[in-house]
Amino acid sequence: MSLWVPGTASSEITSTIDLYDSDILAIERGPLAWARDQYGKSMDIDQFTKDLTEQFAHIGLGVEIQVWTTQQQGAWAFKGVINRRFSEFDPDRQVHEVINNILDIPGQEGWIKTDAAMMEAERRRRDEGRKHS
Description:
5 helices; 20% strand
């Protein structure tokens, strides 16, 4: 997964862990919104990386921030690598979030085609048929 930070030349966030869809929303509304607000401000880059790391900690994610200088004086590029979650990942939660399309991705509503989901869909189809008999 990679999220680009608008307002920066070449900054991105990647992840080495599984993320919930709600994590993506939290990242965009939290750390990335904070980072965008810092754009154009004069700041200490070490403090910026510490503050950005803290912004991720507030939403329960650990991140390593890598910083590079750019050809433009006083401008920096950064890459954040999300490398840990402060709570255990719950795959059922992710399934729930995907099925309910919390990211509002057009055409992505519905269910995930797993064996269990297919069996559940078949069971519901049979139950609906019995109700109409």
